[in-house]
Amino acid sequence: MRAELKEQRRSEIESAALDVMRSRGYEGASMLTIAKAANASNETLYRWYGDKQRLFLEIVKSNVLDIETALEKALTSSVRTEDTLDQIGRLLLGLLLGEREIALNRAAASDATGKLGAAISRGNRDRILPRIVQLMAALRQTGVISAPSDEQAAEWYLTLLIGDLQIRRVIGTLPQPTRGQIKEHVAGVMPAFLQLCAADQVGV
């Protein structure tokens, strides 16, 4: 199968997997049920993904691709400013509050084994946080921020950025925000973050 056709087929299978999970829950979304929904063979799913957990981990990985790409670009750029954090913040919130990510988190909340939640953690925080820390180091070196540590700056940034928004989306008390609402939220976060990371706050 040609690479582009295989990629398209994988996308169709992963979309079908999400649809099955929404209707049946994570435990009820068997590989056979997903295969039938995607008009694929069970053998194909096991050959391409290995098992159900890895199938959903691939969905998580595809969700974080845009933010990873943006972070890599920011880390290799010679210009690092407040605008970099603004851009990353919008992309990250768009990912974490989007329908696919929320569907995965809702399923993880009902997965008694904890396997899906672990997969989401590996796909999201464990892949993104180290890059956020690297970005904070780069911003500190260029004088944009100052903080007790790059890790602390990353934690401050993510806490201010995300807060309880993702939890509220998962439990259904917050609708999916528009791009304008995300832009407004990120703009409000920036002054507080930069104040926390002001040079005269370090060591206080």
Automatic annotation (TrEMBL):
It comes from the Bacteria. Transmembrane segments: none annotated. Pfam families: TetR_C_7, TetR_N. Keywords: DNA-binding. Gene3D superfamilies: Homeodomain-like (1.10.10.60), Tetracycline Repressor, domain 2 (1.10.357.10). Residues 30-49 bind DNA. It comes from Litoreibacter janthinus. This is Transcriptional regulator, TetR family. Residues 7-67 form the HTH tetR-type domain. GO terms for molecular function: DNA-binding transcription factor activity; transcription cis-regulatory region binding.
